[in-house]
Design goal:
The chain is mostly helical. 58% of the residues lie in helices and 0% in strands. α3 packs across α4.
Length: 239
């Protein structure tokens, strides 16, 4: 799809967003979630983990890296360092060698070792289950904390905003913002709290399968008839 057509689609979404009332957007969000749940019944985090420590570690590694690559690296990492205490005692060069293929491996190693040391010194080697404590850990921002809280502790404290969530939120006319923190705040107002953890999974699955960048497959999209950015020649409607 050419550049000008993509710009037109985004502009159309923006016009729909401006003219649509908050209650209307809330209702549409409910429909979006319902349809995507039906389409992706097994939607969940793609990062392999068995506990909060492994998920926290994997999420730090996932920055600027695919989940598939992270999942190739973490088995060896967790075998050698099965707990925060083990990782805190690791040699820098050993960790760097294991995670090298994830990119930015020196920076990530510093974050992992700092995180593990902080867990041992401040939390008895356990991953805290509170946002305020998680974001104090080296290498952990709000996005990473949301992933851990939602998927390891079942706590809906916020909405994870990655590239897929950012793209779909804009195309669906749910927000006019491009900043991740502002998008999260907007989504938290529109999406029921019980869906805060699931929504990113659904958007990620749909973003990978259909609502791709830069060219979405609108003709195959279950949201075509309620998406202001849809370029499908005939809207797909449900009875």
């Amino acid at each position: 799809m050419s550049g000008p057509r993509r710009k037109t689609a985004r502009t159309a979404a923006g016009r729909r967003f401006v003219g649509e009332k908050k209650d209307e957007r809330k209702a549409r969000v409910g429909e979006v979630i319902g349809r995507l749940r039906e389409e992706y019944q097994d939607a969940h985090t793609s990062l392999d983990h068995r506990n909060a420590y492994e998920l926290l570690t994997a999420t730090i590694l996932s920055a600027q890296c695919t989940d598939e690559r992270v999942n190739m690296v973490t088995p060896a990492l967790f075998e050698k360092y099965p707990s925060p205490r083990d990782l805190a005692d690791a040699r820098t060069e050993d960790v760097e060698e294991i995670i090298r293929s994830t990119g930015f491996f020196r920076q990530k190693t510093r974050s992992l070792l700092g995180m593990a040391e902080a867990l041992v010194q401040r939390h008895g080697g356990e991953v805290p289950s509170e946002m305020a404590e998680l974001v104090k850990l080296p290498g952990v921002g709000r996005k990473t904390a949301n992933v851990v809280l939602g998927n390891a502790f079942g706590k809906n404290e916020g909405v994870v905003v990655d590239t897929h969530v950012k793209r779909l939120s804009g195309r669906l006319g749910l927000t006019a913002h491009t900043d991740a923190e502002k998008i999260e705040r907007e989504l938290m107002k529109l999406v029921p709290r019980e869906d805060w953890t699931d929504l990113p999974h659904l958007f990620i699955y749909h973003g990978r399968d259909v609502c791709k960048a830069p060219t979405p497959r609108c003709g195959e999209c279950v949201l075509a008839d309620i998406c202001p950015s849809s370029r499908a020649s005939s809207a797909r409607r449900r009875s």
